[in-house]
C-alpha cells in the first residue's frame, strides 16, 4: 500500500472527529482527567504523535514532571489519587479489551468516584482517543510538532 498522508484523509472525516473531541471536552469531565486518559491510551498504543500532544497539554495544565514520567507505571506509585487510579485502571481495561469484558469490580470502583453518565462519557473519551491513536499510527503522522493553543 502506498503511504497515506494526513492530507489524504477526507476533511469531512477529520471535521467529525474534531467535533466529537470538542463535544467530549465540554461534557463536564475535568480536563486534567481527560488528558490523563488520553496520554495513557497513547502510551499503551505507542502513538508518538499523541504522546507528544497530550504530554504538552498536561504540562500546560500544570501537571508535574514526576506524575507525567510515572504515568506509564502509575500502579507502582503513590502520586495518583484513588479516583485517578480507578480512572486509569478503567482506561486500560477499555483500551486492552482483547477478549475480556470489563469486570464488575472495575465498574464498582468507577461507581465510587463517577456517576453512571460520567462513566458513559469517560468510555466515549477512551474510545475516541483510541481512534485517534490508531489513525496517527496507521498513517505515520510525525510527532514533535504539536503546539498547545
TrEMBL record:
InterPro entries: AhpD-like, AhpD_core, CMD-like. Gene3D superfamilies: AhpD-like. Transmembrane segments: none annotated. The lineage of its organism: Bacteria, Pseudomonadati, Bacteroidota, Flavobacteriia, Flavobacteriales. Pfam families: CMD. It comes from Tenacibaculum geojense. It comes from the Bacteria. This is Carboxymuconolactone decarboxylase family protein. Residues 22-92 form the Carboxymuconolactone decarboxylase-like domain.
Amino acid at each position: 500500500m502506498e503511504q497515506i498522508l494526513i492530507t489524504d484523509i477526507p476533511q469531512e472525516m477529520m471535521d467529525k472527529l474534531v467535533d466529537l473531541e470538542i463535544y467530549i471536552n465540554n461534557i463536564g469531565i475535568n480536563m486534567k482527567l481527560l488528558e490523563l486518559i488520553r496520554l495513557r491510551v497513547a502510551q499503551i498504543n505507542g502513538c508518538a504523535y499523541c504522546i507528544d500532544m497530550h504530554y504538552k497539554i498536561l504540562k500546560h495544565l500544570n501537571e508535574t514532571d514526576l506524575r507525567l514520567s510515572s504515568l506509564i507505571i502509575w500502579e507502582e506509585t503513590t502520586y495518583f489519587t484513588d479516583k485517578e487510579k480507578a480512572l486509569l485502571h478503567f482506561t486500560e481495561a477499555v483500551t486492552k479489551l482483547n477478549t475480556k469484558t470489563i469486570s464488575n469490580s472495575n465498574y464498582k470502583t468507577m461507581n465510587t468516584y463517577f456517576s453512571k453518565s460520567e462513566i458513559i462519557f469517560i468510555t466515549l473519551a477512551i474510545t475516541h482517543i483510541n481512534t485517534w491513536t490508531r489513525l496517527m499510527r496507521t498513517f505515520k503522522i510525525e510527532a514533535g510538532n504539536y503546539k498547545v493553543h
